[in-house]
């Protein structure tokens, strides 16, 4: 068995194995330690560490854990305003899932980006005296900056103003047209400018207010192109019956099934009154409306940045996606409109759409239109990205809603990250530095073998794996925290510091404790 030499940064990387966080608060304190540990590990190579996870992944994928890339997407965020904690929430969750899948040894393609067309963008640009594209450049960059500050490791960032995207949208539109699913008609109804869609009167509040944006919808009449969604009613019903995992969590599947059961209406896919958009092929007076534009970003993101990008090439680079991660506000579009559009274009459906809940403020969805947002930049600069990432993953049951409170944030971060995980790593590395010249050779044949600690940690690793697979991110964090608690308890029981203090034979025996100290082996 080969000995492995690791330094602090490899300890940190190994921690991602278990955790949505890249590493814990120990990083800043411990990076100066320059601790070099030589040890033989129970899992000496990355591939043997992955084996723990891959056995299950292999079974699930019918024997080809490495074969298909894991393609996951966040929504393409609308650049009507800079990002807020709600946009960050989806992206943090996606990043944690992407890291976990990479640790399984999968090739991951993590797609995010910005949706940049439409009436609201043109209006936002006009209100600050800039051209729409200029406005989009600024806000899109604000998203990229925030992802950097939050340590988000995306693979593809697509902007819907990217020329390769426009080419793919037009091609997709033409395919659907050729399937006979696009027609032209007059439409008259109540329109929510913030949702940029016509609403059914029965879904509106008093005074025709949109339930999401609390602003009155306005009567509007337009000559538009429509997509014949109603033709796909039966196919969608059958698809969901045969693939109940298509929509998660399962209670959202019920919602989607009841929408479909209630009858599907064709929907408008162009706007005659909006210039800032991709022109409808063969009708430059109309621009393509949001869903036939933004949703295609998931495919165009896969395309290489060449002039020859086309739908087929993009599709062959990883479509269909494995997982669309979205907020419940856009579930209908992803779980009903999008699969029907893909069927019409003859393309495969994504494997899963997961609709998580809302971060709320005073019970209302936090959002750009309501303006009741929390600034992630403020949180990151005050508490650091690990704390922000951890808090929202741990605190909000993934799928449900969650309210933010600063007092709760501070309590959780102190108790879990500083006092449990950070403390365990600091005391371990601190003792090594002080007593072992920052160096330790551990023989895996004796390392923690037969200790209850090792057994407990291995069970917890498996527990975390299962929770990650099921996208139960809060429970995965909990399992990791339990490992930290078990490690601290183990240290307290063995108290190697008092043996080190005694020196001589006692110090030798303390070093033995370290050899058997499983934490670094397991991580
Ligand atoms: N409060 C929130 N809680 C959780 N996720 C959110 C929240 N707000 C936005 N998101 C994420 O952003 C997506 C919507 O992106 P969008 O850019 O339209 O943001 P928005 O703030 O909801 O905009 P608006 O308020 O104008 O409707 C959601 O599907 C979800 O992924």
TrEMBL record:
- The answer to whether the entry has keyword Aminoacyl-tRNA synthetase is yes
> Which reaction equations make up its catalytic activity?
tRNA(Met) + L-methionine + ATP = L-methionyl-tRNA(Met) + AMP + diphosphate
Any Pfam family the entry gives? tRNA-synt_1g
Location of the Methionyl/Leucyl tRNA synthetase domain: 202-429
Q: Where are the transmembrane segments?
A: none
**What keywords appear on the UniProt entry?**
Aminoacyl-tRNA synthetase, ATP-binding, Ligase, Nucleotide-binding, Protein biosynthesis
Q: Where on the tree of life does the source sit, at the highest rank?
A: Eukaryota
Annotated GO biological processes are: methionyl-tRNA aminoacylation
Q: NCBIfam families under this entry?
A: metG
* Name of the protein: methionine--tRNA ligase
């Amino acid at each position: 068995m080969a000995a492995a030499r690791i330094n602090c940064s490899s300890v940190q990387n190994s921690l991602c194995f278990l955790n949505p966080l890249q590493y814990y608060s120990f990083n800043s304190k411990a990076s100066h330690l320059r601790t070099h540990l030589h040890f033989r590990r129970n899992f000496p190579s990355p591939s043997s560490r992955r084996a723990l996870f891959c056995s299950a992944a292999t079974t699930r994928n019918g024997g080809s854990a490495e074969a298909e890339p894991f393609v996951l997407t966040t929504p393409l965020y609308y650049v009507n305003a800079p990002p807020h904690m709600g946009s960050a929430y989806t992206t943090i969750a996606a990043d944690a899932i992407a890291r976990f899948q990479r640790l399984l040894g999968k090739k991951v393609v993590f797609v995010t980006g910005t949706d940049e067309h439409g009436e609201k963008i043109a209006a936002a640009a006009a209100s600050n005296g800039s051209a729409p594209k200029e406005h989009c450049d600024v806000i899109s960059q604000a998203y990229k900056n925030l992802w950097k500050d939050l340590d988000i490791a995306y693979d593809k960032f697509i902007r819907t103003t990217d020329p390769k995207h426009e080419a793919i949208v037009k091609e997709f539109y033409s395919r659907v047209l050729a399937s006979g699913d696009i027609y032209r008609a007059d439409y008259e109804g109540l329109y929510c400018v913030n949702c940029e869609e016509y609403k059914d009167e029965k879904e509106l509040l008093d005074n025709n207010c949109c339930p999401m944006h609390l602003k009155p919808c306005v009567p509007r009449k337009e000559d538009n192109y429509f997509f014949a969604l109603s033709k796909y009613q039966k196919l969608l019903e059958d698809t969901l019956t045969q693939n109940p995992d298509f929509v998660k969590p399962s209670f959202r599947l019920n919602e989607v099934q009841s929408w479909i059961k209630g009858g599907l209406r064709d929907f408008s896919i162009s706007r005659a009154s909006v210039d800032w958009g991709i022109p409808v092929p063969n009708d430059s007076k109309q621009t393509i409306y949001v869903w036939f534009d933004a949703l295609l970003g998931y495919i165009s993101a896969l395309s290489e940045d060449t002039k020859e990008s086309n739908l087929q090439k993009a599709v062959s680079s990883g479509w269909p996606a494995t997982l669309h991660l979205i907020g419940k506000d856009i579930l209908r579009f992803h779980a009903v409109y999008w699969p029907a559009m893909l069927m019409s274009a003859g393309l495969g459906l994504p494997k899963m759409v997961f609709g998580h809940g809302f971060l709320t403020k005073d019970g209302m969805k936090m959002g750009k239109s309501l303006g009741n947002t929390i600034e992630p930049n403020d949180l990151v600069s005050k508490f650091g990205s690990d704390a922000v990432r951890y808090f929202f993953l741990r605190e909000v049951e993934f799928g449900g809603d969650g309210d933010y409170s600063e007092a709760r944030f501070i309590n959780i971060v102190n108790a879990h990250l500083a006092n449990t995980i950070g403390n365990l790593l600091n005391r371990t590395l601190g003792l090594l530095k002080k007593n072992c010249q920052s160096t330790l050779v551990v023989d895996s044949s004796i390392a923690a073998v037969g200790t209850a600690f090792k057994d407990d940690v291995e069970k917890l690793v498996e527990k975390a794996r299962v929770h990650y697979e099921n996208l139960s991110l809060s429970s995965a964090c909990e399992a990791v925290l339990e490992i930290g608690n078990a490690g601290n308890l183990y240290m307290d029981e063995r108290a190697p510091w008092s043996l080190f203090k005694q020196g001589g034979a006692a110090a030798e025996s303390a070093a033995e404790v370290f050899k058997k100290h499983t934490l670094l082996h397991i991580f």
